[in-house]
Design goal:
With 268 residues, the protein is mainly alpha-helical. Helix content is 79%, strand content 0%. The longest helix is centred in the last third of the chain and has 31 residues, at 179-209. The chain is globular.
Length: 268
C-alpha cells in the first residue's frame, strides 16, 4: 500500500506542471462528449436511418462535421497572417489562439478515438490517423510550442472534411449516384488533393528540415502525409474507374444493337 501511494505521488508530481493543460483537455473532451450525447438524444425522436448506418453513427458524423467547422474557424484565427509557409515561424511558442485551437481539437480526438474503439467500425488507417493526431496535438498543447505547424497540418486536413462527411451522408441516404453527390465528390477530390498533397507535401518537407521542430511533430507530419497519399491513391483509382467504365446508357445501347443483329439474322 505504501509503495502504491509513493508511486501515485511521483506520478502526480510529474503531472503537476501540466495541470492546466490536462484540465482544459478534459473539459473539451467532456464538451464534445456532451455534444454527441445531445445529438443522440435528439435523434431518438427521428425516423430510423434509411441506410446501414445506425443513429449512433449518424450522430458521430454530425459531431465530426461540427468539429470540422470549429477547427477551421479557430485554426484560421491562429494562422492569421502572411507567414503560412515561413520557416522562421516553425517551432515558436504557442499563441493564445493557437493553444485554444489545439486544445479544442485534442479534446475532440480523445472523444472520437474512444468512440472508434468502442464501435469498431474504423479501419487501421483511420485509427492510425487518430493516434498521430492525438500525439501531434498533445505535443503542441503540453510543450507549449510548435503550434503553428500543427494547426497548419490540422487546417489542411480539415478543409476537405465537410465534403467527405456529405459524401458519407449521400451514400447512406441512397443518393450516391445523384448529380449533387457527383458534384460533391469532384469538389472533395479536388480540395483533398490540392490541400493534403499539393500544399501538404512542401509544408511537411519544410517541417522535416527545420531544426526547431520537435522530432515527434516531424514524425507525425510525415506519417499523416503518407496516410494522405494512401487516400489520394484510392481517390485516383476511383476517378480512373469512373472515367474508364462504360456508362449504363452505352451498355444499354450496345445490348440493344446486339439484340437487333440477332433478330435480323433470324429473319434472314
Amino acid at each position: 500500500a505504501n509503495q502504491t501511494h509513493s508511486t501515485m505521488e511521483v506520478v502526480l508530481e510529474a503531472l503537476a506542471p501540466f495541470e492546466t493543460q490536462i484540465l482544459e483537455t478534459i473539459q473539451y473532451a467532456s464538451f464534445w462528449a456532451l455534444i454527441y450525447g445531445s445529438l443522440c438524444f435528439m435523434a431518438k425522436g427521428l425516423p430510423a436511418p434509411r441506410g446501414k448506418a445506425t443513429r449512433s453513427e449518424w450522430c458521430n458524423q454530425v459531431q465530426s462535421l461540427l468539429h470540422c467547422f470549429a477547427a477551421l474557424v479557430l485554426g484560421f484565427r491562429a494562422l492569421e497572417g502572411p507567414e503560412f509557409f515561413d520557416e522562421n515561424m516553425l517551432g515558436q511558442p504557442n499563441t493564445a489562439a493557437g493553444q485554444l485551437a489545439m486544445t479544442c481539437s485534442l479534446g475532440y480526438f480523445v472523444c472520437d478515438f474512444i468512440w472508434c474503439l468502442i464501435s469498431g467500425d474504423e479501419d487501421a488507417v483511420m485509427l492510425a490517423h487518430h493516434v498521430v493526431c492525438l500525439a501531434m496535438l498533445g505535443t503542441g498543447v503540453f510543450s507549449g510550442s510548435s503550434g503553428r505547424e500543427i494547426i497548419m497540418a490540422l487546417f489542411l486536413g480539415e478543409i476537405s472534411n465537410p465534403m467527405y462527411k456529405l459524401r458519407w451522408m449521400f451514400k447512406e441516404l441512397g443518393l450516391a449516384k445523384s448529380t449533387a453527390a457527383s458534384l460533391n465528390d469532384n469538389i472533395f477530390f479536388a480540395v483533398f488533393l490540392f490541400a493534403r498533397v499539393g500544399l501538404g507535401t512542401p509544408f511537411v518537407l519544410m517541417v522535416l528540415i527545420s531544426p526547431r521542430v520537435p522530432l515527434l511533430v516531424k514524425f507525425g507530419g510525415a506519417l499523416i502525409l503518407v496516410i494522405s497519399y494512401i487516400w489520394a491513391i484510392k481517390m485516383l483509382l476511383i476517378l480512373l474507374y469512373r472515367l474508364t467504365r462504360p456508362s449504363v446508357k452505352s451498355v444499354s445501347s450496345f445490348s440493344s444493337a446486339e439484340s437487333a443483329k440477332k433478330r435480323a439474322k433470324k429473319d434472314d
